[in-house]
Structures are given as structure tokens and as C-alpha cells.
Design goal:
This protein is mainly α. It has one domain: Hypothetical protein af1432 (Orthogonal Bundle), CATH 1.10.3210.10. 67% of the residues lie in helices and 0% in strands. The longest helix is centred in the N-terminal third of the chain and has 21 residues. It is globular, with a radius of gyration of 16 Å.
Length: 189
């Protein structure tokens, strides 16, 4: 599947603002893939499909989680997390993408996980810093991403955790585990 075909598929799944975001994530992911020696085609495809389920009805995502063997604990946490693992499942079933690295990057682009690959990090960070993102600190995050993907990832994780705490929202345990793993990696380097 080429870029144009993939973009046409996702365009049918989302509204215009989400599609523009997806283009930004794709462009950013390709740029980061070049810097960090990641397969650019995999980064491109993971970025294009990262929000494949974002605009699906909550009831549909809940049903997929319950019926298709996805982690049931997701249901106890913020619904904003759901589209990532549900999206990976649907991308495999509906689009036919079976590459485990691409599917993993889609699955964990909202929460992270303890053993993130460089592709996982590229997609997580690209989603956080893509050009249409406007929030205090995004420019610093963009600079960090150019210099050290782990520092950018740590910055994004900290900010995400702080944001959720300030809003009195639950935080998925995997996000804390990711933060701890990145901190440990930074300490040992």
C-alpha cells in the first residue's frame, strides 16, 4: 500500500481537523525516522493509521475492547486511550496491515509501554509535537525531538501526566510504567 492509498483510507475515517493532524504526524514521523535510523515506510504507515479509530463511536470502541481480547482494564481509564489499541486491531482487520511493529506503534501511541522500540518512540513523539499542536512547551519538545528522542519522550510523558493530574483524571498505569522505564534508561546512559 502506498502513501496515497493509505491517506485515502484514513480520510474516510475522520473529520478534516483530525486528517490535518494525521498529515502532520506523518510528516513529523518521517523526519524523526530519518534522524533516528527508523524504517521510514513503517514510520509513515504507523503515523497515517495512528488515529484510525479516533472518530469511531465510544460504544463501538468499548465493544471491540470487550469482545476482541484487548486489555479490559482500559475500560476503567480515560476513553481517550481507547482509540489506540482499538485502532491497531481495526487496522489489522479492516485494512489488512499485519506488520507487528506498525501495529505496536499504533497500539501504544497514547500510553507508551516499558520496552518502547525506536519506532514506538517516533510515533509517540510525532503525535505530541506535530505542527498543528499549540500548547505551552511544544517548541521545547520539538527541539528536544531533534536532539534526543528519549528526552523528548520523557518531556511528553511528564507533561501528559501533569495535565491529567491537573484535570483530576485517572492515569493509565502503563503511562507511569513508561515514564519509569524512560527515567531508568536515562539514568543508566
Amino acid at each position: 500500500m502506498n502513501r496515497e492509498q493509505a491517506l485515502e483510507i484514513v480520510k474516510q475515517q475522520m473529520h478534516e481537523k483530525r486528517y490535518i493532524h494525521t498529515i502532520g504526524v506523518m510528516e513529523t514521523a518521517i523526519e524523526l525516522a530519518k534522524i533516528y535510523g527508523v524504517d521510514e515506510k513503517k514510520a509513515e504507515m504507523a503515523a497515517i493509521f495512528h488515529d484510525y479509530a479516533k472518530c469511531r463511536p465510544i460504544q463501538e470502541m468499548e465493544s471491540v475492547i470487550k469482545q476482541e481480547g484487548l486489555p479490559k482494564d482500559l475500560l476503567q481509564y480515560n476513553k481517550e486511550l481507547w482509540h489506540a489499541p482499538v485502532g491497531a486491531y481495526l487496522v489489522e482487520k479492516e485494512v489488512g496491515i499485519t506488520d507487528s511493529e506498525i501495529l505496536q506503534a499504533i497500539t501504544y501511541h497514547t500510553s507508551g509501554h516499558e520496552r518502547m522500540t525506536m519506532l514506538d518512540k517516533v510515533i509517540y513523539v510525532a503525535d505530541y509535537i506535530e505542527p498543528s499542536r499549540k500548547f505551552p512547551g511544544v517548541e521545547l519538545a520539538r527541539e528536544l525531538a531533534q536532539e534526543d528522542i528519549n528526552k523528548a519522550l520523557l518531556f511528553a510523558l511528564k507533561r501528559t501526566i501533569q495535565f491529567l493530574m491537573e484535570k483530576d483524571q485517572t492515569i493509565y498505569p502503563l503511562t507511569f510504567q513508561t515514564y519509569n522505564a524512560v527515567i531508568k534508561e536515562e539514568i543508566t546512559e
